[in-house]
């Protein structure tokens, strides 16, 4: 959501921000509705003031023994007109809010122009892609050779885009999630949260999934939504609250299953675990002071990077262009891990600063010392990391010619000391 006053004060700047997103101008439409809303609201307030004056005239007329019938008629007409204007004002304000709710966040000034991933900018890279003396296998071939990755039985149970992991591979996935949580809580200062996996409309609206991206979500018959990411419940922990400035930033993390319909991804990544309807992910969320959210964004990204460093996985950090960012973000870093089986880098984390976009939708504010007016917090979120994609990266980067896979040392304590996954038979 956006500050209407800011749009009124700088309509050209607002449309320029939308143009950077590849969208057409919207201020004429929004401000026309805004003018109608304010006019209806102002007239309703005027009628109320006029009726207060008429009430005094009624009292004066009765005191003199006069006939107040005409004044009473005018009062009744005024009430009817005010009710109509208030209904119009409510309808127009609803139209303004609906128009604003469908508009994505405006990009930060340092976000590069561009339409898609081809226009993203590499910021840094860490590690070198491994060189094998054999043809690298992808994670599907590795998992099937291990005998512990089963897509056929998952398909029998649930259909396409599901997987059954077994034995040591199932333990490895669990180990990855445990390792990430321990790292972020013990060393990075995030508070672990165990949130609900089902959320209300208001929660999905607060982070920007509704109304625009309803088709990407799964909805229950009771009207609740399965979370596509723990960002929804974690960010909304502060919805409707007036926060203490001294408590900022608040940092939350959670390991949860995530559910996505992938409605817009037909025909892409159909092989393997890259794009699933159900997957586990460790999410990071920060509720930050507006003056320090840029620093918090850099810190969050470095926390996600640390996971890959300790797992000895090569990666690069990309600054997304305006056309490739998610709707709620004002600036996003994607972390892309090297996958030998695909001979390319693939996204494993997105760390985004959403500014006050989500906070306005949630009405999450704080009051700074010495200031009378409350301010909206800034919200940030990042995957740290998507567990399934990290499992894919571990299998492909640490594979051996004989079909075995070396377990990164950071995971040995979580694997009961198991250092190598051996192929089945």
Average pLDDT, to the nearest integer? 92
CATH-level-2 architecture of the largest domain:
2-Layer Sandwich
Radius of gyration, in Å, reads 27 Å
| Total domain count | 2
CATH class of the largest domain: Alpha Beta
The CATH topology name of the largest domain reads BirA Bifunctional Protein, domain 2
Query: What series of H and E elements makes up the topology?
Result: HHHHEHEHEHEEHEEHEEEHEEEHEEEHEE
Which structural class should the secondary elements be placed in?
A: alpha+beta
Largest sheet: 8 strands, mixed
Look at the structure and name the CATH superfamily of the largest domain. Bira Bifunctional Protein, Domain 2
The strand line-up of the biggest sheet is 1-11-12-13-16-10-9-4
The number of helical elements comes to 12
How many beta strands in the DSSP annotation?
18
Question: Could you estimate the helical fraction of the residues in percent?
Answer: 25-40%
How much of the sequence lies in strands comes to 15-25%
Judging from the principal axes of the Cα atoms, what is the shape? elongated
Summarize the structure in words.
By secondary structure, the protein is of the alpha+beta class. It has two domains: 4-101, Serine-tRNA synthetase, tRNA binding domain (Helix Hairpins, Orthogonal Bundle); 117-421, BirA Bifunctional Protein, domain 2. Helix content is 40%, strand content 20%. The protein is built from twelve helices and 18 strands. The protein has helices at 4-9, 11-20, 27-63, 69-101, 139-146, 151-158, 167-186, 201-207, 231-235, 293-310, 357-362, 387-397, and strands spanning 121-126, 149-150, 164-165, 191-192, 198-199, 218-219, 225-226, 242-244, 250-259, 278-288, 315-319, 331-339, 344-353, 365-367, 375-376, 378-386, 405-406, 420-421. It has an eight-stranded mixed sheet with strand order 1-11-12-13-16-10-9-4. It is elongated and about 100 Å long. The chain starts with a helix and ends with a strand. The mean pLDDT is 92.
């Amino acid at each position: 959501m956006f500050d209407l006053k800011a749009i009124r004060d700088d309509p050209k700047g607002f449309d320029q921000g939308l143009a950077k997103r590849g969208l057409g101008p919207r201020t004429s439409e929004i401000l026309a509705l805004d003018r109608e809303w304010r006019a209806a609201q102002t007239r309703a307030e005027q009628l109320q003031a006029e009726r207060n004056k008429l009430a005094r005239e009624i009292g004066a007329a009765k005191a003199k023994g006069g006939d107040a019938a005409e004044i009473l008629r005018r009062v009744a007409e005024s009430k009817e007109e005010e009710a109509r204007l208030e209904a119009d004002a409510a309808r127009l304000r609803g139209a303004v809010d609906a128009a604003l709710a469908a508009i994505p966040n405006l990009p930060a000034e340092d976000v590069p122009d561009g339409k898609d991933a081809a226009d993203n900018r590499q910021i840094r890279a860490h590690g070198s892609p491994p060189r094998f003396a054999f043809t690298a296998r992808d994670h599907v071939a590795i998992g099937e050779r291990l005998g512990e990755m089963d897509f056929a039985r998952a398909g029998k149970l649930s259909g396409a885009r599901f997987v059954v992991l077994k034995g040591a591979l199932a333990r490895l996935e669990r180990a990855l999630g445990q390792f990430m949580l321990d790292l972020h809580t013990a060393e990075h200062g995030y508070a672990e949260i165990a949130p609900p996996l089902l959320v209300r409309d208001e929660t999905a609206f607060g982070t920007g999934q509704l109304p625009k991206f309803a088709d990407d979500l799964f909805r229950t018959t009771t009207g609740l939504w399965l979370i596509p990411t723990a960002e929804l419940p974690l960010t909304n922990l502060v919805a409707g609250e007036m926060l203490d400035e001294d408590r900022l930033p608040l940092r939350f993390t959670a390991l949860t299953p995530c559910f996505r319909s992938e409605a817009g991804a037909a025909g892409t990544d159909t092989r393997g675990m890259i794009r699933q309807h159900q997957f586990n992910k460790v999410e990071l969320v920060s509720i930050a002071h507006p003056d320090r959210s840029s620093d918090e964004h850099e810190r969050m990204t470095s926390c996600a990077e640390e996971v890959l460093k300790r797992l000895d996985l090569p990666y690069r950090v990309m600054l997304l262009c305006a056309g490739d960012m998610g709707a709620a973000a004002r600036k996003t870093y994607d972390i892309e891990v090297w996958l030998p089986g695909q001979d390319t880098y693939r996204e494993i984390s997105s760390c985004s600063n959403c500014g006050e976009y989500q906070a306005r939708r949630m009405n999450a504010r704080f009051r700074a010392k010495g200031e009378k007016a409350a301010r909206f917090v800034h919200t940030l979120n990042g995957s740290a990391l998507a567990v399934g994609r990290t499992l894919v990266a571990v299998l492909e980067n640490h594979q051996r010619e004989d079909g075995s896979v070396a377990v990164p040392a950071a995971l040995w304590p979580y694997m009961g000391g198991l250092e190598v996954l051996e192929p089945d038979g």
